[in-house]
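Try this one yourself first.
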């Protein structure tokens, strides 16, 4: 019997996705340039009593012969060049009407090139962002898909069977044209980077306030019972209480694991890509930017040690504070900064959609990401509802309910930012979020002085308030 789908390129995510599909009754053919990866996948299938559902075939021609027509082949790889090599091996044995599903992480230009190549061959081409960890791929990830409606219609029933579900709705959607899905997946990854840094900063305030791990875990658990409910909040509580007892190659101890881990976190490529895209689209993603720069600072530990000996932290008496009031303020600050993080991320996605004519359904993106991925949370349901009501909304901050929520909590947010400055604690993403709001609510920014300086030093000119937009003037500053 022919397989329902082929997966070529067995990353860890690909293996787990194949097992997920097999467990849901789909027949899956897997292929890879390395026989070892194919064997790893089929061995795991046998271990789970799924050996009749998963076939491993290395030869591209035989791989394609094992698939139902029109063939659906999902290509996965760690980078774009590997995807191209895999596509070049397999596509010659595909036929007109077959479907290539590109699950790579790459640039808009590369996706456009592949789409044009597939069109020449008569093969349908769609891009897909698989949101979620390797574990989520096995249990049920979220699928963001973009490209021709006809190709999506053929793939949707397969994805629906294996996707996560929220309120009985599968986390699967065609979110737009072109490579919108892969771009949305990049946005998802960058939100995760921002979320992690916001949580780390909240943890740092609690740590400096002398809360122990149990108290911090309890605090995050209580937050998770509010509108801020999320997978990341939930797992943070678990992490803080995890003892150092389940790390391969390390002697178990009763110490908390988080306290024995290096304070160094590498930056993810998707976050750096988001910064580059934000520059191209002239969109402010300062929270993600500060989260990435915080990771760069964490890696440069030698420099931090040296600077610590030169610049001492300010003396600060935590004992005089009302700790419960501080924690309540921190919850409000965290809630506000999260809203701004999502506002920035979705604004960038909307700008890219307009630039590339993707017609992105922002509500669908939010709905899909509300389950099956690392950033799954209650807030995404609220965001989906906002965009369903106002699909053309330029920025989440323009939604009346969002504005009211920020206004109601901004005093607490400002108190937390002030506290961290006075105490000498880094809270760059909380403050970046606040600076973003203060900039956008300001009727007149100090940028007029910048224009004067540019004209005075470089003769670049300026626009005037009392003249038509676009009309440039220059002053003889030294006269």
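Now uncover the answer:
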């Amino acid at each position: 019997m022919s397989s329902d789908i082929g997966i070529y390129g067995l990353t860890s995510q690909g293996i787990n996705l194949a097992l997920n599909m097999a467990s849901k009754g789909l027949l899956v053919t897997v292929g890879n340039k390395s026989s070892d990866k194919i064997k790893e996948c089929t061995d795991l299938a046998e271990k789970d009593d799924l050996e009749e559902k998963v076939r491993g075939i290395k030869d591209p021609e035989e791989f394609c012969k094992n698939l139902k027509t029109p063939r659906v082949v999902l290509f996965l790889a760690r980078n774009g060049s590997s995807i191209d090599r895999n596509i070049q091996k397999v596509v010659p044995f595909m036929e007109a009407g077959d479907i290539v599903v590109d699950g790579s992480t790459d640039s808009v230009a590369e996706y456009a090139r592949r789409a044009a190549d597939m069109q020449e061959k008569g093969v349908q081409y769609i891009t897909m962002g698989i949101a979620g960890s390797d574990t989520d791929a096995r249990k049920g990830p979220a699928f963001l898909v973009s490209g021709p409606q006809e190709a999506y219609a053929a793939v949707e029933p397969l994805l629906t069977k294996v996707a996560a579900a929220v309120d009985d709705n599968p986390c699967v959607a065609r979110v737009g044209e072109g490579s919108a899905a892969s771009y949305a997946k990049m946005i998802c990854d960058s939100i995760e980077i921002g979320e992690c840094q916001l949580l780390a900063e909240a943890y740092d305030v609690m740590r400096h306030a002398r809360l122990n791990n149990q108290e911090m875990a309890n605090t995050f658990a209580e937050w998770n019972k509010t509108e801020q409910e999320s997978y990341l909040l939930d797992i943070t509580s678990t992490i803080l209480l995890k003892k150092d007892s389940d790390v391969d190659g390390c002697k178990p101890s009763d110490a908390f694991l988080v306290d024995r881990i290096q304070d160094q976190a590498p930056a993810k490529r998707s976050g750096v890509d988001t910064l580059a895209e934000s520059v191209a689209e002239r969109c402010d993603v300062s929270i993600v930017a500060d989260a990435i720069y915080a990771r760069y600072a964490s890696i440069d530990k030698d420099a931090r040690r040296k600077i610590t000996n030169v610049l001492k932290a300010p003396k600060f008496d935590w004992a005089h504070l009302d700790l419960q009031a501080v924690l309540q303020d921190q919850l409000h600050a965290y809630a506000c900064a999260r809203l701004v993080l999502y506002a920035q991320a979705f604004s960038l996605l909307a700008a890219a959609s307009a630039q590339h004519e993707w017609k992105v359904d922002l509500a669908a993106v939010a709905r899909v990401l509300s389950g099956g991925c690392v950033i799954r949370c209650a807030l995404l349901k609220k965001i989906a509802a906002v965009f369903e009501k106002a699909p053309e909304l330029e920025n989440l901050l323009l939604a009346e309910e969002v504005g009211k929520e920020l206004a109601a909590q901004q005093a607490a947010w400002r108190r937390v930012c002030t506290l961290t400055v006075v105490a000498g604690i880094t809270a760059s993403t909380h403050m970046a979020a606040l600076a973003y709001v203060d900039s956008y609510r300001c009727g007149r920014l100090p940028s007029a002085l910048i224009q004067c300086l540019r004209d005075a030093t470089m003769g670049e000119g300026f626009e005037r308030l009392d003249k038509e937009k676009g009309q440039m003037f220059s002053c003889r500053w030294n006269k």
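Discussion: The chain has three domains: 5-176, 186-441, 444-478. The chain has a mean pLDDT of 95.
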